[in-house]
Design a protein that fits this description.
Largest sheet: 2 strands, antiparallel
Strand content: 5-15%
Number of helices: 4
Radius of gyration: 15 Å
Number of domains: 1
Order of helices and strands: HHHEEH
Shape: globular
Helix content: 40-55%
Oligomer: single chain
Distance between the termini: 35 Å
Strand order of the largest sheet: 1-2
């Protein structure tokens, strides 16, 4: 989910790492309420899968030296920070 104007301006480009970081923080903080709201609308979601898809997309962007969209149409190169942002949290094992 993104602000509609920003999403329109971003087009098919991936968001700059600062926006990715905000997206991850928001999803981690509000994942349960987002999932409930989306489920109410008939949309199935899983935060872990979304994170993996984002990682795949940023890996592809790095492989092709794609620029990342920033506010006001500025395009930035990846710094690789997305790897730290999208690192999978450790899995908790029962008992």
């Amino acid at each position: 989910m993104a602000h509609s104007t920003c999403n329109r301006n971003k087009g098919a480009s991936l968001a700059a790492e600062c926006h990715l970081e905000d997206w991850v923080k928001r999803n981690e903080a509000d994942a349960k309420s987002f999932a409930q709201e989306l489920r109410y609308l008939g949309i199935v979601t899983e935060w872990s899968s979304s994170r993996q898809v984002a990682r795949w997309a940023y890996e592809g962007a790095d492989a092709t030296n794609a620029l990342l969209w920033n506010t006001n149409g500025e395009m930035l190169p990846s710094t690789g920070y997305w790897r730290d942002i999208l690192i999978e949290p450790p899995v908790s094992l029962p008992g």
